[in-house]
Design a protein that fits this description.
Chains A, B: InterPro entries: Isoprenoid_synthase_dom_sf (IPR008949), Polyprenyl_synt (IPR000092), Polyprenyl_synt_CS (IPR033749). The structure is a homodimer. The first copy, chain A, is mostly helical. Chain A contains 16 helices and 2 strands. Chain A has a two-stranded antiparallel sheet. Chain A starts with 11 loop residues before the first helix and ends in a 5-residue tail after the last helix.
């Protein structure tokens, strides 16, 4: 395994050996460096590059589809008047552009813009549909599209965004565009299967769900598109097949690390980012990764947790007892170790394709960013 | 305008001038020839060619998506056991293959198989989603996918079929595949806008809907994919841009003729094909083309029809009076003349690209077939 020895980057193995699992932004101490500023700058630059392409793509839609999509992206209010935009952090297009730049320099980064826009369109198509299926009423602090326009329009706008994304790549004259479109289409199928698993698992009892199932679901739902984003950047850089696969694996592993940490925050909260109230996932009886790990531990705490999870929310929850049961059953420690392990694998895959830490810098910053934030 | 002079094909202008509008299968008399056998043979051959490609495509899906899709295509029962298949008449893939053969011969027809399969996958993706939005419980005499698997799974399977279709073209090494994928993606956006118009118009009063709006909706919902199918066949035959556009226009016009005749049958029924009971569209207060034309005629019958349409179905319908009102207001005659006119335009576009009637034979048979059947 090639490892970056730069002195300015945290060494994934260290974090794990140190037993801290997931270093937080406040304990950057020993390994220094990461403060999120670099990633924030990359994301801001990406939004500036990709937004005009996204806006132009949406402008090509017929009026009805354009209106719903522009609302969803935050560029229009519900009444159709212009809004400032609230289209998320652009992590996926940032990964496309960073991977293209890392493997092919500035020219590849510029050429990869359609791929970056396509990946972001696919992400938003899945959000539109997932919100309908999950009956989620809020997205990015605004009412979801289906609550404003109805289910049919939200489904149709999602369908149109998928077509727009794959059509944009098909129409792109770049020599990698066909392979990129085929890969992105495969990824969509995986995202659909992941969302299916998620909704299917919600209907089962917490003890009927295995850890392997939840991990596979998280990989399909979260890891696949992050991996695909990195792979598309590599394709647009003209990288050899091995490097494309390594970049895909990098994104997948980082995506799983992100999900694990997001699940930890969903139970124990985050002292700095309080977007999610501590314990929210327990109140919702969510079969998150730490909970399923805890339930499968065979410990007395697992039995206690299973009993608490079986009680309906209406009866009032003993949050402290629940949280403690997950912790005592080893759910938190497992998730933190898994996250660190996944990040180590991500770094290893990245180093395989891009041995030079200078070139890999943008991708490293983004991976660190997603695994240190909750939203 | 080039016209076929074969003595064996009905002359669209004649049918119109004779005031009969839409010749039925029993009155083939003066112009002879069309008995549907040729089209039936083409469709059967198409099913035999395209079904293996479709089955292979669905087999590539993850288990959950495969199961829902195979049920939708009629290849599996709801319990997952094999079924004989009930995947519709394959008109769209037949148009792809016939267009490729007409412009490029047998080799082009063979090469166009992925395009034929892709078009059929797109058609079925829209059926899965439309059934969810329209709450239709029956499709091809079987319970719709959403009634069996739930809304979420029907939405996800539709999403996966769209990805499969566009991904299949993107991965096809044929030189026309990228242009075909881009064109099919554009068509999906048009289909979405058409379905949006349809659902939006249902919420408005019958007199608030204009004929232009209903015609535009029918073109987007029905004409677009028939046109795209023909255009994809032309692309795979390596045809020049003008011929691709002519084939698209041929399919669109034939699709509109089909919709007009389908709407006529929805009111007056069909003496031979009783798949739809006569008057069904009036009972449902459907804003079909003859009804909207009748309502906009400014005749006393239009006023009467508007009053009858305003009554809720529960109060008991005077079907005879309603049917007569549409007829007296000129709705039937208008629709029949429009259909004949659209077919004439379709023939004209076809003759422009393929002057030889022998070569155009398959496409002519299919166009005649779709405009003479109700289902």
């Amino acid at each position: 395994m090639t490892e970056y020895v730069t002195g300015t980057r945290p060494h994934p193995g260290e974090a794990r050996a140190g037993g801290r699992g997931i270093p937080s932004q406040t304990d950057g101490g020993g390994t220094g460096a990461f403060d999120g500023h670099e990633a924030a700058a990359i994301l801001e630059e990406t939004r500036g590059t990709v937004d005009p392409a996204l806006q132009a793509a949406l402008d090509s839609l017929p009026g009805s589809m354009r209106r719903i999509s522009r609302y969803h992206f935050g560029w229009e209010h519900a009444d159709g008047t212009p809004a400032a935009g609230n289209a998320g952090k652009a992590i996926r297009p940032a990964l496309v552009l960073a991977a293209a730049a890392a493997l092919g320099g500035p020219a590849a980064r510029t050429a990869a813009l359609p791929a970056a826009a396509a990946v972001e369109l696919i992400h938003n198509f899945t959000l539109l549909h997932d919100d309908v299926m999950d009956r989620d009423a809020t997205r990015r602090h605004r009412p979801t599209a289906w609550t404003v326009f109805g289910d049919a329009d939200a489904i149709l706008a999602g369908d149109a965004l998928q077509a727009l994304a794959l059509g944009m790549l098909a129409a792109d004259p770049h020599p990698a565009s066909a392979a990129a479109a085929a890969r992105l289409a495969d990824c969509v199928v995986e995202l659909c299967a992941g969302q299916h698993s998620d909704t299917a698992m919600e209907k089962r009892g917490p003890s009927e769900v295995t850890l392997d199932e939840v991990l596979a679901m998280a990989e399909a739902k979260t890891g696949a598109l992050l991996g695909c984003a990195c792979a598309l950047g590599a394709l647009y850089a003209g990288a050899p097949e091995d490097d494309v696969e390594a970049l895909d694996a990098f994104g997948r592993e980082a995506g799983l690390a992100f999900q694990l940490i997001d699940d930890v925050i969903g139970i124990w909260g985050d002292p700095r980012h309080t977007g999610k109230p501590a314990g929210a996932d327990l109140v919702a009886r969510k079969k998150s990764l730490p909970v399923v790990a805890a339930l499968g531990s065979g410990t007395p705490a697992a039995t206690e947790l299973a009993e608490l999870y079986a009680l309906p929310h209406e009866q009032g929850d003993d949050m402290e007892r629940m949280t403690l049961a997950v912790e005592r059953a080893g759910g938190r420690e497992w998730a933190q170790e898994q996250a660190a392990d996944r990040m180590a694998r991500a770094m290893s895959e990245l180093a395989r394709a891009i041995p030079d830490p200078e070139s890999a810098g943008g991708l490293l910053s983004l991976a660190e960013f997603v695994t240190r934030r909750s939203t």
